[in-house]
């Protein structure tokens, strides 16, 4: 099948490369000519493990191409995916749909009859209706269908998620459009990945509901971690104990500094605004958003308190800046609020991240970026582990301690065992493991 992907960012590029790997003919379109030039030179605009090799393989095979010309790219396509950004709109938190609507308007006059226009971007309920209206108004004579097909990709594991999905959600009541989508996803359908057909509005809501629920799990276990610290319990034991209940499940029950990234913060906020606009407030999600925002600053204060409450003039080394491992994404990363809290308290911050320092430097101009974790720890009064990169899971604890001036290690991801850190000479502070807690 012939597919056009409008938008060559995270979702569009990964999806386009994977569709090409299935054997489809795919062109990824973007208005940013410099991005297209870099992609044609196999220079990826994002860090995602395995993406550069996947793109090169399919470009070399003639199945994947990149273009700035939307009109010619969508001609003759069976499906045209809209995969542009929908960031939070400044001022009110609603999803900014201007890029989605601009793409719909531009492609309207170029599509052929029986084209399926697929909204891949995360959009509020009812967006598909407006996309359909825009296209029909611009090209009233063409037969087309607008379908919702939300993505469920985790940064750092996106290729695997696309090729081995839990489910594929397709929102449309038009049978011929459903047939086209069956063809698009045929390789996964043959492997028995479940395809859930719903109405378009249900599909749009499924994406927001899923992300809000996962954000709730994260926030819940973080609040349990705070309670564990007061009660002398161990949040990792609590997490295991409730996660073994198959009604709950173990995923997203790892205590830490709060969620961030490109999806959870903006999607929970967009869901709140949609609910408020429809006079059906979602109080649980409201509490989740507020609790998560407060937690990030609280983790900065946790580091300050570990140093006695006054860090003016002290040097603190941070390990990990991106919102999660295996990405260079700094959007709403907990490290941003943590760093600001430390700087506001008068500390000097040095940091290391395996992939995110270039992006981090744009939002943290006062942080000194270091080329290794040990360089970030050099002469530091404390070191804080913020992102659980594999590179930090087996640090030479003796070398880390020797590099420091102080001996405080604040582990916001519970990577290390207390006894292990203390044996290396550290005063060790973790999350959700109270002073009376047994060893883990």
Structure description:
By secondary structure, the chain is α/β, with parallel strands linked by helices. The protein folds into two domains: 2-198, NAD(P)-binding Rossmann-like Domain (Rossmann fold, 3-Layer(aba) Sandwich), CATH 3.40.50.720; 236-264 and 295-429, 3-Layer(aba) Sandwich (Rossmann fold), CATH 3.40.50. The chain is built from 18 helices and 14 strands. The strands form three sheets. A six-stranded parallel beta sheet has the order 3-2-1-4-5-6, sandwiched between helices. A six-stranded parallel beta sheet has the order 11-10-9-12-13-14. Helix 15 links the parallel strand 10 and strand 11 (368-369). The longest helix is centred in the middle third of the chain and has 32 residues, at 200-231.
**CATH topology annotation of the largest domain:** Rossmann fold
Rounded to an integer, what's the Rg over CA atoms? 24 Å
What's the architecture of the largest domain in CATH terms? 3-Layer(aba) Sandwich
The tally of strands reads 14
Distance between the termini: 52 Å
What is the CATH top level name of the largest domain? Alpha Beta
- Helix % is 40-55%
Q: How would you describe this structure in keywords?
A:
alpha/beta; elongated; 6-stranded parallel β-sheet; Rossmann fold; 440 residues; 18 helices
